[in-house]
Write a structure and sequence with these properties.
2 domains, five-stranded parallel sheet, alpha/beta
Length: 416
């Protein structure tokens, strides 16, 4: 009997750890001021809405500057748990470590609080939880006057918290997002190319620019288990025909020009590659396109020479043999016909998430005091809170509605 109980528990843990996104999921992105920057949370929402690994997904960010795992735990009943999320991601630890070396008491406090956060989500009925590690501090810009090797010291603390978060995920049957290792690896490689002054964790050494946030989004999207297959367009030049996978409707083909209507977008990147506030430079050191952003063109019947692919305003040539295996257009054409529509949706998503911060930090956080101050108006306060939450839902719906099908042309020519 004891062995059967152990096996049953193990099976339950595996089931939870193997949870995946489902159609209609509501994803809560929870964390500290780095989450409140509304960068990696926006990238996650951009991906879930436009790349669409599942249908009808919603995202809300619950970032709070200066937050710790135990601080979030105390706020959960009156804030996060008032929403019916089905999926939650957590990213705590940067403040929990106190910007100083790890101690046994500090490790214990972080472990106990994060475990309690996970259990509170489970009690609420959250089906899929991704426990994230903290990220890193920048090896150049994180400084302390009293400690010349402050960045190395604090990254050691954050690495220990990473190990704690991973152990909690395993213990509680949750997914794990290794934000720390993703950021550290990308930061090390990027600084080798662009120089030590190229910031990956921001000018203050803590709050990343768009580059570091893309690393964070990558880690969480991997934790969410998205498969990265955005779409495949297969072109047969010899037969003069083309077909598309789910979300990629071929409208017609003439002289190698394929017109496609896409309801699923590839993820798009912007900015000067040398800038920390761009996403174009860091992808060289991050397998984002390989793992999460495969928008594939397969060309058959092109012979043994080369093929010229024109997409939007750009053209590139590829070996016909490589084209037959498949070309990832998202990686080869950073500026493409989706760039404008992607930016338009991103703008709406940012407007939505900009509303969510004061909803949580001002209105809902202050509701308890207001109820105590004016005890005779409980019903009125309830209506105000419900109306504010409803407005948030309307903005999430507007973000989803902003994703419109994109019609574009891919021209393929055999080159001798």
């Amino acid at each position: 009997m004891k062995r059967l109980i152990v096996l049953a528990v193990a099976a339950l843990v595996c089931l939870r750890a193997g949870a995946q996104l489902q159609n209609g999921d509501f994803v809560a992105v929870c964390g500290d001021s780095i989450t409140e920057q509304k960068q990696y949370s926006v990238f996650i929402e951009d991906y879930l809405l436009m790349c669409r690994p599942k249908a009808d997904l919603r995202v809300m960010q619950f970032g709070w500057g200066g937050e710790t795992s135990w601080g979030f735990l105390g706020k959960m009943p009156t804030q996060a748990l008032k929403f019916d999320m089905t999926v939650a991601t957590t990213c705590y630890g940067m403040n929990d470590g106190g910007y100083s070396p790890m101690t046994p008491d500090k490790a214990r406090h972080y472990k106990d609080s994060m475990t309690a956060v996970v259990k509170a989500f489970k009690k609420k009925g959250v089906r899929f939880i991704v426990v994230g590690s903290p990220g890193v501090v920048d090896s150049k810009t994180f400084v302390r006057r009293d400690m010349p090797d402050a960045a190395a010291m604090y990254n050691k603390t954050l690495a220990e918290e990473r190990d704690i978060a991973k152990a909690i995920a395993e213990q509680e049957g949750c997914a794990f997002a290794d934000v720390y290792d993703v950021m550290m690896d990308a930061m090390t490689k990027a600084k080798e190319k662009y120089g030590a002054s190229y910031q990956v964790a921001g000018g203050d050494g803590i709050h990343p620019g768009a580059n570091g946030h893309l690393c964070m989004a990558y880690a969480f999207l991997k934790g969410l288990g998205v498969d990265g297959n955005i779409g495949t367009i297969t072109v047969d030049l010899a037969a003069n025909k083309a077909e598309g996978s789910d979300g990629q409707k071929v409208l017609g083909m003439k002289d190698g020009a394929v017109e496609v209507e896409s309801s699923r977008y590839p993820f798009c990147f912007t900015g000067d590659p040398k800038s920390p506030n761009a996403t174009t430079g860091i992808i060289e050191f991050l397998p984002f396109n390989q793992d999460l952003n495969r928008y594939t063109l397969v060309v058959k019947g092109a012979g043994t020479g080369k093929v010229k692919v024109t997409w939007g305003d750009a053209s590139k040539e590829f070996a016909a043999a490589d084209a037959e295996k498949g070309i990832n257009l998202a990686a080869e054409f950073l500026e493409n016909p989706f760039s404008g529509p992607f930016a338009a949706v991103d703008k709406v998503v940012r407007e939505q998430q900009n509303y969510e911060t004061p909803l949580i930090k001002t209105l809902m956080a202050g509701m308890g005091d207001m109820r105590r101050m004016v005890p005779g108006e409980q019903e009125a306060f309830g209506r105000i809170e419900a109306a504010a939450i409803k407005r948030g839902r309307e903005l999430q719906d507007a973000s989803a509605a902003a994703v419109k099908p994109v019609t574009h042309t891919i021209k393929v020519e055999a080159v001798k």
